[in-house]
């Protein structure tokens, strides 16, 4: 086996820690890099980069590798966070983790790693990369642990990025990763997985967004046009949202379209022009169901769009693969028609296409057809 100089993105979490250990065990020359990408209120309880760096340094000590602290905060603010805010201000719901991977972890970080003499980079993502001998293309595959698969977040990676990237824990189950961490005495073996915004941490989201986005309160209306409440600003809501609407006490008697007296309310539409938040009762209300979507800003792992035909897709992370037909694919956009209606398809989120275990790429949802 050929040994490489590999730079591992050490986040302070258990997955990247085990990644470094596995590569070192295989005989590679491994260097750890801790990425600092957020500086605003960095001393707050929600943004714990200092704590994470201490954990990453402790991991590097146990594994026996050097660690470097690199600041990409300016890149993050310009290329990820600014876009994140633009999308929210426009009434869409972006996925910053996808943009962060494409612009920071596999661009700024990859470029830095190459500058320090690395031949490969590695991260703790649950995904895999395979060289297809027949096509000479590097394929992005789902991680073997289906409950942890992160290929959805990585679908914008291109051939140049995939050819230089390793995902060692993508071959393992999360339980195996935890066990390895315990077996070698990693200090973060039991550290919980992070679930907050990429690099920004876990915090009250509406309060955080409120610091950066202007808000204009307006009416909340039901399908009959009746005003049943007041919203704090359309940017602060997402399709399918059930919590935090402030209308929990309002009940609609006489079940309507699957609704009923004790049926919860869901955000179904946002009229940016008239500043109206439309809500419906019932999880399966027609306004929440979409047979078709349009996606733009497409990115294909192979460098070119797949052919028209049947595939599977996810319109949000942790969703089961949904059978669909791809139509009008090109370098920039595509359409998907689903075999079964999809719930709360949300502009700004990503539609990611799969052919079996191979992630083909995807795009940002621009619009979705609903049943009424």
Total count of strands = 17
Rounded mean pLDDT score: 90
| Helix fraction by DSSP (H/I, runs of at least 4) | 10-25%
Order of strands across the main sheet? 12-15-14-13-16-17
What is the total domain count? 3
Subunit organisation of the chains: single chain
Q: Radius of gyration, Cα only, in angstroms?
A: 22 Å
Q: Tell me, what is the CATH class of the largest domain?
A: Alpha Beta
User: What is the CATH architecture term of the largest domain?
Assistant: 3-Layer(aba) Sandwich
Structural write-up:
This protein is α/β, with parallel strands linked by helices and 372 residues long. It folds into 3 domains: 5-205, 3-Layer(aba) Sandwich (Rossmann fold); 214-284, Adenine nucleotide alpha hydrolases-like domains (SH3 type barrels, Roll); 287-369, Elongation Factor Tu (Ef-tu), domain 3 (Beta Barrel), CATH 2.40.30. Helices cover 23% and strands 30% of the residues. A hairpin with a 5-residue loop joins strand 8 and strand 9 (227-231). It starts with a strand and ends with a strand. Mean pLDDT is 90; it is low at 252-259.
């Amino acid at each position: 086996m050929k040994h490489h100089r590999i730079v591992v993105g050490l986040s302070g979490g258990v997955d990247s820690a085990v990644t470094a250990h596995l590569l070192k065990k295989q005989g590679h020359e491994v260097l750890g890099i801790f990425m600092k990408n957020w500086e605003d209120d960095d001393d707050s309880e929600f943004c714990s980069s200092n704590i994470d760096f201490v954990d990453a340094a402790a991991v590097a000590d146990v594994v026996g590798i050097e660690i470097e602290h690199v600041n990409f905060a300016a890149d993050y603010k310009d290329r990820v966070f600014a876009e994140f805010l633009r999308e929210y201000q426009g009434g869409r719901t972006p996925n910053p983790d996808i943009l962060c991977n494409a612009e920071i972890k596999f661009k700024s970080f990859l470029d830095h790693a190459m500058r320090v003499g690395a031949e490969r980079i590695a991260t703790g993502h649950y995904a895999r990369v395979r060289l297809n001998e027949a096509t000479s293309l590097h394929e992005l595959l789902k991680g073997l642990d289906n409950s942890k698969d992160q290929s959805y977040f990585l679908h914008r990676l291109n051939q140049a990025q995939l050819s230089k990237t390793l995902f060692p824990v993508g071959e393992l189950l999360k339980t195996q990763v935890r066990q390895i961490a315990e077996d070698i005495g990693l200090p973060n073996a039991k550290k919980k997985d992070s679930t907050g915004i990429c690099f920004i941490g876990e915090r009250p989201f509406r309060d955080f967004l409120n610091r950066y986005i202007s808000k204009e309160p307006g009416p909340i209306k039901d399908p009959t046009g009746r005003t049943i409440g007041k919203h704090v600003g359309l940017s602060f809501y997402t399709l399918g949202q059930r919590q935090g609407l402030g209308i929990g006490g309002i009940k609609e008697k006489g079940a309507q379209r699957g609704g009923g007296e004790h049926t919860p309310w869901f955000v179904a539409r946002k009229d940016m022009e008239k500043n109206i938040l439309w809500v419906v009762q019932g999880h399966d209300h027609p306004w929440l169901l979409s047979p078709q979507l349009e996606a733009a800003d497409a990115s294909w792992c192979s460098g070119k769009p797949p052919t028209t035909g049947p595939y599977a897709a996810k319109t949000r992370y942790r969703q089961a693969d949904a059978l669909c037909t791809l139509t009008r694919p090109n370098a920039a956009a595509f359409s998907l028609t689903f075999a079964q209606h999809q719930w709360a398809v949300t502009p700004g989120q990503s539609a990611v296409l799969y052919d079996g275990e191979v992630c083909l790429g995807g795009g940002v949802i621009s619009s979705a057809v609903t049943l009424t």
